[in-house]
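Hi R.,

Quick one: here's the DUF674 family protein sequence you asked about.
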Amino acid sequence: MSDLAKDVKFSLKVMINEQKTEVLFAEIDSDLADVLLSFLTLPLGTIVRIMKKHYGDEAPVFGSITTLNDGLSYLDSSHFWTEAGKEMLLNPTSSFIDECRKLKLDVGENQPIKYFTCENRSCFYPRSKSLGIYYDIVKCDCGKQLKREISVRNVSNAVDGEVFTMRTATFLITDDLDIWSNETTSVKDILDNLGIMDIDGAELRNLTFGFNEIMDLLKYSLISPTPLTNVVLKQQNTYKLDFSFHWIGKKTTVVDNSVRKLKVILQKSTNKFLFAEASEDFIEILFSFLVISLGGVQSLLGTDSSLENIDNLYSCVEYPIDEKNPNSHERSRLLSPPIPYGYFSKKWIFPLTEEEAPKLRYTASKNEEYLIPGAANCTFKSPRGEANYINGPRKYMVKDDLTVTPLCLTSYINTLNEQKISFSDVEELVLNIGLEEK
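And here's the predicted structure, written out as tokens:
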């Protein structure tokens, strides 16, 4: 995060109960409302990364997503077709780069997409038919690397402006991140909905939130039922996050209806789950979780994700009281956030759409070449290098917390020895796994 971003400040008015134990509600402007809604655009892997960067060793554990991300980071690059394929999963791109770069504070640290052309300036293959995207590791059709970055011209570099809500709008926000429009909802109606009969003795505070408070708000939105109270009153009432995927696809069509076999290792005497033995296909599906944004999780599960505060943010978009906030175009994207272009692999199974390829035209004049938005004539090569991320065939061990490690005879034996379980007390079952179970 840049020093400039860390100097950003948000003003808000906060109403605290008479006992000074909880925040009743807060009044915020459109800048802060946009930042809160941008939480929905964060890929799960990005959340793990920015939390570790900000909090270091004290970073909160984001359920099994943290252990899944850790397993990916520890996995040797030889398990992937390319190093960039692993980086795509570890540091997923957002499909809201343009919007988030207009925010007063972009906690996801989004950067413009990079494009690359052949390092050989004398290459005789058509440049427009062989361009790299995201990373400079793909080979040109001539055999050289697509290593030379090529700029995009005539693109607005504005980093502020209306994003998800109208610039002049103001909002009331509850302790659990339910957002209400000040323009269309009376305070009395909001108090009635919150079950607040009177505010005698309540205290109104004028506060300023900076980068640290916004990061705390993101953190507590994932691990606490009262994130605003946690940040304002410095309380620590959190719960253990049970972030699991009970896939119950709603209205969308499943991309892949196929069933995959998974060998499950149990302790026979207790029926305790020890670990699963999985192929590279299943592991690729697990790692694909990290690419999905919080809004994508919501679109798959409805408001039943076990993340109550994020459920509330999503509901504010799905059932807005004010039809202008969020605006209709961004509302549609927030409700069904696409996966960034090039991230769908052959093993992708989740009912989410992929963004179209960037609409760019290759242009060259004299000694310079560049891309311009418009009628597309460019073809991009995936940094994955192949149709999938992970090469194979390989076998992996998957623990109950989604920790993934390579499976071999010694790791199998060590796992049993660590838990003092004999071979005679082990049972293996083969399960058929489809989208519902994942």
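The radius of gyration is 24 Å.

Cheers,
M.
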